[in-house]
Amino acid sequence: MVLKSKKRVWAVLLVVVFSIGLLAGCGSSQPPAGEPAKKAVVGLAISTLNNPFFVDLRDGAKAAADASGMDLVVMDAQNDAGKQMANIEDLIQKKVSVIVVNPVDSKAIVPAIEAANKANIPVITVDRSAEGGKVVCAIASDNVAGGKMAGQYIVEKLGGKGKLVELEGLPGSSAANDRGKGFNEAVKSASGLSVVAKQPADFDRGKGMKVMENILQANPEINAVFAHNDEMALGALEAIKAANRTGMIVVGFDATADAQKAVKDGSLAATVAQQPKEMGKISIETAKKILAKESVPATIPVALELVVQK
Amino acid sequence: MKELLRMREISKYFPGVKALDKVEFSLFLGEIHALLGENGAGKSTLMKVLSGSYKKDAGEILLGGQPVDIDSPRQAQELGIGIIHQELNLVPELTVMENMFLGREPLNSVGFIDEALIEEEAAKVLDELGTDIPPSAVISSLSIGEQQMVEIAKALSYRPRILIMDEPTAALTERETERLFSIIRRLAAGGVGIVYISHRMEELFAISDRVTVMRDGTYVGTVKTREATFDQLIKMMVGRDISARFPKEYRARGPEALRVENLSRPGKLEGVSFTVHAGEVVGIAGLMGAGRTELARAIFGADPLAAGGIYVDGQKRVIRNPADAIRAGIGLITEDRKQQGLVLGLSVRENITLASLKRFCKHLFIREADEGKVVDGQIESLRIRTPGAGQMVKNLSGGNQQKVVIAKWLATSPKILIMDEPTRGVDIGAKTEIYQIMNMLTASGVGIVMISSELPEVLGMSDRVLVMHRGRITAELPVGQATQENIMAYAAGGE
Amino acid sequence: MLETMRRSPLLRKMGPLLGLLLLCFILAFLSDRFLTVNNLLNITRQVSLNAIIGVGMTLVILTGGIDLSVGSVVALAGSITAGLLSGGHGLAVSLAAGIGVGGVLGLINGLIITRQKVQPFIATMGMMTIARGYTLVYTDGRPITGMPEQFRFFGGGYIADIPVPVIIMALIFLAGYIMLKKTRFGRYIYAIGGNEEATRLSGINTPKVLVWVYVLCGTLAGLSGIIMASRLNSAQPTAGMGFELDAIAAVVLGGTSLSGGVGTIGGTLVGALIIGVLDNGLNLLNVSSFYQQVAKGIVILLAVMLDRKRGKGGA
């Protein structure tokens, strides 16, 4: 019998569907039926995995979950608040024990958290906070303190005089708000400093580069750049290099592996070290405590440090 | 005389149709062999088999005595078979020489196209043809006749042993035709075998050595032109008397239905005026590009008019778009039914009611019962052969598709129906049925404007004949005074 | 059975539906969470936004066009409604403004396409960028919040245990179905997609039909944007990115031909559900989000290949 084209297409579709099923079978660590003790499952709704910082956070959480014998389900919202809502709804349908959420947007996450509340699933936020809903525990770096740290470093380096650029993170995210707030508090104290340009680049390296290119065109004199994360800082460095401009200090935030390398070779002046792996780990440990009905604090600040060339 | 080509018992099937049935053909060295037959007789199909566009389903092709298989146009070219198609196959934006060498551009040592060589070669071939078309001219700037010359030059640049010409004079003026004939004779004298397809009898007598006649996909016979008579060829071609082909019913003409005055459109129409009476068929003849289709489109509001008035039943009507024309009672059956007449992916029902859907609607909704009644009525009275009203139009034969187009316009109850090439691409049986539909329409008082490039059809079905040349009407003849000869003379611009 | 399917046009039309059922069957087998009333409601709610846009996109694609601006219209309409509401305007006014903005942008698309003869791809691509830019201007790049509590009803409410977006979606599909099947306007949409010139020469005001199609598509995108803002209880300036592609995918998965003239509104619902079920099912099965994208891409490619076969088979 000759396989007619139409049949062949459906046959391919079948194969794809089955292979996705197999893939899923491998990925899932659902215990086979009949196994007595069911493992606790923690859902991690992460804002994006297209950024090493959050990959570190996930790895920290994964390691902690493996160590304490829990299952971790990771869902990636690809920086889309609507998709994140769907992800959390799916986690609720899955009846996970605890939801750890790293919100795309502090405000847009609220209805999703409320839905989890309704289903009696405890919610922990990590890195970014939520502006509503019942959150058992908020785990975050003290971003205000970190922003201040970066600001003070720039004030010292420039001797309190110069023109500054601020590359902001995703508008509305708490990290962008807090880091910006701390930074601006620090630079306000020195009257000789002025922020000549302040634009969002959405925590993205490509956008950071593009925004910086434009700022360089508009401002012949710039002494320092503060980016709300390393990705944008590294993007800005590329733009500065391409424009052959010198004498600028660039400070990032997060201390990702790339950024630490850049600090080591001197192209990046400093970065504020967050500890994403630590955050991931703490979030799982907190989830474990919640499941064991132990009390947990409402907020857990995770320490920060300034990384500079040694 | 040496035999260059022999085609033996060639058959070709299309879904549901036997396009060629055991057809015979042969060609001698240096011979001009005419292939004669009506539209749909299978002339072009046979030549497409020879030139590799179609694969034969049965039969044998011998080239110089050797059997060959011709699977692609490229292979035909390599075997020395060149073809000049009825429709021009040139890229309008490219130059003459670029078109001539399209797809086989010689490269220079660097790997770029060798422009100098192309120009030299092109000029040589054009010179042989005795034309003064510059090789660097852009095709779109040339006249249709000049473009035809470029097609011939392109075919000759392959140095073919056999050259097939499919209706080469369809778009040419008389002068250009004469020039073409002298070129053809020169080529034949040089040893090229020429297959000349035409349904114009006069041309065949003027140029050919032998004539092969085909009818309905079958081989009728081959005769030496010198020994053949006009009537004999007609009889071979039609298989019966001409009067049976055109079942025209003459009747007394009614009151004036349509009058157009001074229709003008720059470059296309110049002061065209004529009338059509109820129950009358006005035939419009002319060469390609004479402005016949443009006239039809202008009356129908499909193209904008610069000046002129249109009167229906004596009332002046302002027609700015097809909707206005339909409201005034005018319908247009376009020459190209697939591109302009039908929505091929929709059903027979949906196509028939497309222009009159408002009639079957209450508010926004279609009343399917009313619609169905009208559609069934049309299918029956026009004898549209379809498995059902829900059948997609693209699955019908050409003749039945054309009847669907006619039905679409009848559903609008027109007073005047303009039919542009109403029987093009339709088989003989369906042609007769379409003529009978025209009789039915005139009997019910519809005035018909029939544009046709087939002079027998114009002579056989019209009450009056108008001839157009370069956007003007050059003659108006009662059908009794019209002949193929005087129509051709007026069409070519003579007075 | 496959043999019958190839022969029977009815069964061939059911192809996408069979695909969806097959997908559901496999997922139900692999995950005990999949086939629950709650999860099915959950899927339909997640699908509703894409499906509503898909209805408008179906109309546009049936005419042989495309509308790339819907994603940006989602963001702009949501932002304007949210902005007016948080500025203290009434619910009716704010909703009308959001939906109206969608309609007006659709009108502009339609006029540019019909009057200026700009290809739909280019015209709506321009509009996509303009609307996104204007959203950022209007919101200053920040999410808008602070809407009154009753606004959440449209995205998050229930009527008789059925999510409101699902009800809105169902009504729109019903209206779309009736319009395409039973009205002159619907018939003309198919005719234009099949052969625009023949339709024009049949006395139909084709530009008018086309403009209305783009107006409807924009309006539905606007409605979708409002539901989205309501669901997230905030309007995101970056909302709706990539929605145009999801909507086009749903339409094509549903068997509508990208070259116009052939397709159904029901098919689009099935197409949107296939995408939604795939997203949801793969989430339930813990498939990494990276692989999810691969799977989605393969399914869309398969659909386009099916579209091509269909075109070839029919001609």
CATH class descriptor name of the largest domain in chain A = Alpha Beta
Q: How many distinct folded domains of chain A? A: 2
Greatest chain-chain contact: A-C, 49 and 61 residues
- State the low-pLDDT regions of chain C, or none: 1-8
How many separate helices of chain A? 10
Strand coverage percent of chain C: under 5%
Helix-strand pattern of chain A: HEHEHEHEEHEHEHEHEHEHEE
Examine the coordinates and then state which fold CATH places here, giving the name of the CATH topology of the largest domain in chain A: Rossmann fold
Output the radius of gyration of chain C.
Answer: 19 Å
CATH architecture group name of the largest domain in chain A: 3-Layer(aba) Sandwich
- Mean of pLDDT of chain A: 85
SSE succession of chain C: HHHHHHHHEEHHHHHHH
How would you sum up the global shape of chain C? globular
CATH 4th-level superfamily of the largest domain in chain A: Response regulator
Task: Give the DSSP E fraction of chain A (strand runs of 2 or more residues).
Answer: 15-25%
- Describe the largest sheet of chain A: 6 strands, parallel
Secondary-structure class of chain A: alpha/beta
Q: Which range best describes the helical content of chain A: under 10%, 10-25%, 25-40%, 40-55%, 55-70% or over 70%?
A: 40-55%
Biggest sheet layout of chain C: 2 strands, antiparallel
Q: Tell me the structural class of chain C.
A: mainly alpha
Mean pLDDT of chain C: 87
